[in-house]
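Project standup — Tuesday

K.O.: blocked on the structure for the chain from last sprint. Re-posting the sequence here as requested.
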Amino acid sequence: MTISLKSRTKEHVKIYWDKTQDEEIQKLFPFSIKSLEESLKLYEETLKEGASSYGKVIYCNEKYIGDIWCYCIDETDEKMAMLSIVIFEKGLWGKGIATETTKFFTQDVFNKYKIDKIGAFTYSFNYRSRGLLQKSGFSEIETFVEDGIESVYYELVIPKAK
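H.V.: unblocked you, prediction finished:
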């Protein structure tokens, strides 16, 4: 399998929106965006100078299969960002693609931005997502309940140079 990250386009945003309307995917990931129009508007914001989010699309064997991005990038106060990744091609779940992608992408984010850590959260019952974060070097920080659903917060801290 050849995995690569590419720049997002409006067409990717439309495909992503369609693919993530799947009932199983909707249950596993805490989506906050409620419309394609809102997705396109947020995408346009990422293109502006000083945007607080940065993302890539994931390709496997030259086929678009998902997105990975950081949002709430704060280089001034908290010196952190939040990570999200969704592989919408369910036949590729459990193949290590998300872990490999996350390791590469988080290194890119640490190199690109002046941040010290990357946070991520997932539902407690999403064992694949939790495994991905752990295999990618994230540490479990806390468990919390939001909107009646138990979630887990993880962090990846940039290794300090010795």
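K.O.: great, moving the ticket to review. The mean pLDDT is 93. The two ends are 35 Å apart (CA to CA).
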